[in-house]
From TrEMBL:
It catalyses: an organic molecule + reduced [NADPH--hemoprotein reductase] + O2 = an alcohol + oxidized [NADPH--hemoprotein reductase] + H2O + H(+). It is found in: Endoplasmic reticulum membrane; Microsome membrane. Keywords: Endoplasmic reticulum, Heme, Iron, Membrane, Metal-binding, Microsome, Monooxygenase, Oxidoreductase. This is unspecific monooxygenase. It comes from Leptosia nina.
Amino acid sequence: MIAYFVIVLILLGIYYVYFKRELDFWKNKNVVSSRAIPFFGNYTGYILLKKCIHEVIEDLCRAFPSEPYIGAFYGTEPTLIVKDPEYIKRILSKDFYYFNSREVADYSEKEAITKTLFFTHGDRWKVLRQNLTPLFSSAKMKKMFHLIEDCNNSLNALLEDVAKKTEFEVRSLMARYTIDCIGSCAFGVNTEAMTSENNPFCVIGERIFDASNSRGFKMVGRAIWPAVFYKLGLNLFPLELTEFFKNMITKVFEERQYRSSDRHDFVDLVLNLRQSKHLVGDSMKNLKGDGKKSVIEVDDDLLSAQCMLFFAAGFETSATTLGFLLYELAKNPEKQEQAMKEVDEYFKNNKKISYECVFETPYLDACINETLRLYPVLGVLTREVVEDYTLGGVSLERGVRIHIPVLNLHKNPHYFPNPEAFRPERFLGVEKDKIKPFTYFPFGEGPRICIGMRFAKMQMTAGLLTILKKCQIQLVENTARNITFEPRAMTLQPAHGINLKLVLRKK
Ligand code: HEM
């Protein structure tokens, strides 16, 4: 009985300490905030996997429509939700040094995959970024384009089969195309994702982005309580995934006898990095005026984890975006017609697709941009304060989280009138010039902007040219007219498949 009483007292004590802290934290800084619930903070729906993170933040933004920022608790972690474009600019770009980490900076060495560019921070991030950036230059993309062209030939053949079906799930189809592109460019292997449906790359792709309860809780648990997460011996990604990529990349290295080939793919480029054994780059302190260099060791673990990251980021993001884009074109036949006109014009002037297609098809580019406005791959950008900083008079201590509500800004009628409408024209001519800086960032912004943006646009534009040259896209009876999103997914994903129909165009 006494033990029971003591336990209740302890629990009440913990509750009180958290409650008090959470009640006072933002109040003491003169920042508006909503009442936080102990343990869950203001993110209950997200932590319980009932709502996507952008939906939870949307509710908070709606409660304080004219505040430049809102104080919140991400579980037990103090978090500033920043809505004002000027402050966002400081965080993502101008004062990037203080916000160079995405999340849980002190734990990025725990897993092979979290040591890579997306997850790491500080000097390690800077050295990796400096050394990996040249892999994505225009010149490199151009040299690689012959691989994308091969994939488009396979896509062209696959479309014939798909058009025979009464309907098909669009994201899965697009994933088969982008898996083939990234497999070929990142690993130098022909994945055959478009010729055989259940091939290992498609299976592994599904495993990486597995939107199950267990993965969802792991994602949330690691992001909010990393110390407990790693004490429990958990990993964000199953170890067999990294093993799969390590075995594959080692096989490819061996086949090439550890020398670069004439494919001009990422493996060639990564093999060059491997030869140097160390990567050297500027230290983050340089941003504060120090002229120091920083060095990290290169080993096969790092390179294969890096390739796994490129595979994951490279196929999933573009597949989902292409899926949403085709869905919007099916819903908006007049926009589809406009896009087809441009495609027909392109093929009038070009016998086949070349790398330059990205610059020669402004309407397709506007369709991609508009799709990413409505469906940004990351509905919320995260940053973490790595050194104490004062933002507009609010002192932010090391470790405070920053959430930038991307989707909320993309749908703000003040920045994008009639925000629910699919209007690629927003991204053309004078309308495009009017977009306020730091209100639209589907690829992020500042030094941590998506490194693969050029690659993504290249594979998406080429894919669209192939599809729209050959087919018209139509809705079917059970295509959802409004999309709901999957709270357990790592990126913005539809909760249910989107079924469409392809009709071959008359020649
Ligand atoms: C439609 C396609 C894509 C979209 C919408 C997208 C979006 C994003 C976003 C929003 C970020 C975070 C940026 C920030 O925090 O400021 C990011 C980072 C990143 N993306 Fe992409 N991405 C796409 C395709 C790709 C591709 C094709 C690759 C690689 C082949 C890639 C590799 C990465 C990497 C490595 C990072 C981390 C960069 C860093 O932290 O320095 N992404 N991407």
